[in-house]
């Protein structure tokens, strides 16, 4: 009985929603439907010879220690690579472990990094504070104009690191233009893609060499675990990235990988719904008299609207707005909310509001804050899965108190 080959067995023929339910899955001899959780730090071998060949790297897909190879983590990595359209990926204990690995695995003393100055706090710290301690100089530039990257490049520049849209003001960096500049100087481009998500922005297709994620955000998306990912070519991932992970050990636990695999099953549903709601809320807030400005990539008021349409398939699940009346008004608004939580996570099923000036950007000087648009009245909203009408009503009440 010969079965004809169903073309849908090729993952390249499937859409993201389908891949996120099935992609990367491997069944144990028990034929479980839900992916198995392999809580094991080590593995035993049928013979000493097998063990010798495994340690020599001659056995494809073999496991010798869960610091750098675990079957549940493998499934998560493979599912993420399918989503990204990447040849390979490695999972990490957190988003910061992933970013630190991606950046530090590509440089050595004497090298130079160029990065956009509007970065997630921890990312900026790695580039601005840690890299120089190890003899790697860095230059931070205003990422909105690609010419600023070109001007900062030096012969010893090995890495260009960007985040787009940026935290918290949702400014954009032109990925394709910056990739061209980086490659012309022999440097690698690393893109932190958390704010756009793997569903709505494809940095590798635009020329990036490595893409990083905090899986803590939309991939778990339900506030349970931390995790991170680095994705790119097989050469970079199985070389520098894998070696750095193996030897420094910021490994994702099998349990967290399992939670994140389950998160990916509903990832596209959640991200699409949250993005639609964010766009709706951005429209509603833009028309409110107590709002100074709204920042949302796919809103026509965004200063880089044309780039946003070209580079991103949809807006974002986040929006930022400036309330009239400064910090006092921002606090009054936040404190009056009933549904939206005051917190600093993002990409969660629960809507979350953050006052960047006094929380995520507290460490920076007022001058550095204002340079990246973090004003006293600025609030960042991560839109969750609640009914958008309820969120708009909650914000409307908050605005009355502001
Ligand atoms: C959250 C976040 C990180 C860090 O991820 P953790 O999982 O918290 O370590 C890095 N970059 C961006 C853009 C983030 O939002």
TrEMBL record:
The modification N6-(pyridoxal phosphate)lysine is found at residue 217. The keyword Secreted does not apply. Residues 1-28 are annotated as: Disordered. Pathway: Amino-acid biosynthesis; L-methionine biosynthesis via de novo pathway; L-homocysteine from O-succinyl-L-homoserine: step 1/1. InterPro entries: Cys/Met-Metab_PyrdxlP-dep_enz, O-succ-hSer_sulfhydrylase, PyrdxlP-dep_Trfase, PyrdxlP-dep_Trfase_major, PyrdxlP-dep_Trfase_small. Its cofactor is pyridoxal 5'-phosphate. Catalyzes the formation of L-homocysteine from O-succinyl-L-homoserine (OSHS) and hydrogen sulfide. Belongs to the trans-sulfuration enzymes family. MetZ subfamily. This is O-succinylhomoserine sulfhydrylase.
């Amino acid at each position: 009985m010969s079965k004809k080959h169903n073309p849908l067995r090729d993952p390249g023929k499937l859409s993201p929603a389908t891949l996120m339910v099935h992609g990367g899955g491997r069944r144990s001899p028990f034929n479980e439907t839900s992916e198995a959780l392999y809580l094991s730090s080590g593995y035993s071998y049928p013979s000493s010879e097998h063990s010798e060949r495994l340690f020599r790297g001659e056995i494809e897909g073999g496991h010798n220690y869960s610091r750098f190879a675990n079957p549940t983590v493998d499934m998560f990595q493979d599912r993420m690579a399918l989503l990204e359209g990447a040849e390979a990926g490695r999972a990490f204990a957190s988003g910061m472990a992933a970013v630190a690995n991606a950046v530090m695995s590509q440089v050595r003393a004497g090298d130079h990094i160029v990065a956009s100055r509007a970065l997630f706090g921890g990312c900026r710290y790695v580039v601005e504070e840690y890299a120089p301690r190890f003899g790697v100089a860095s230059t931070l530039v205003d990422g909105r104009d690609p010419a600023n990257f070109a001007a900062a490049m030096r012969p010893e520049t090995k890495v260009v690191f960007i985040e787009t849209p940026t935290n918290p003001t949702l400014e954009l960096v032109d990925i394709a233009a910056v990739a061209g500049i980086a490659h012309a100087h022999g440097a690698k481009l690393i893109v932190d893609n958390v704010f756009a998500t793997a569903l709505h922005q494809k940095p590798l297709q635009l020329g990036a060499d490595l893409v990083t994620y905090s899986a803590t955000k939309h991939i778990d998306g339900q506030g349970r675990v931390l995790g991170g990912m680095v994705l790119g070519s097989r050469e970079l991932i199985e070389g520098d990235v894998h070696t750095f992970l193996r030897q420094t050990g910021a490994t994702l636990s099998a349990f967290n990988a399992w939670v994140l695999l389950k998160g990916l099953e509903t990832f596209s549903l959640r991200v699409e719904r949250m993005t639609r709601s964010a766009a709706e809320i951005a429209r509603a807030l833009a028309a409110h008299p107590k709002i100074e400005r709204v920042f949302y990539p796919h809103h026509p008021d965004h200063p880089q609207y044309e780039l946003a349409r070209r580079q991103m398939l949809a807006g974002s699940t986040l929006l930022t707005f400036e309330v009239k009346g400064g910090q006092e008004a921002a606090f009054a608004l936040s404190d009056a909310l009933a549904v939206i939580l005051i917190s600093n996570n993002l990409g969660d099923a629960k809507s979350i509001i953050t006052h960047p000036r006094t929380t995520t950007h507290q460490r920076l000087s007022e001058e550095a804050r204002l340079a990246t648009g973090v004003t006293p009245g600025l609030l960042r909203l991560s839109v969750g899965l609640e009914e958008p009408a309820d969120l708009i009503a909650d914000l409307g009440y908050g605005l009355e108190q502001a």
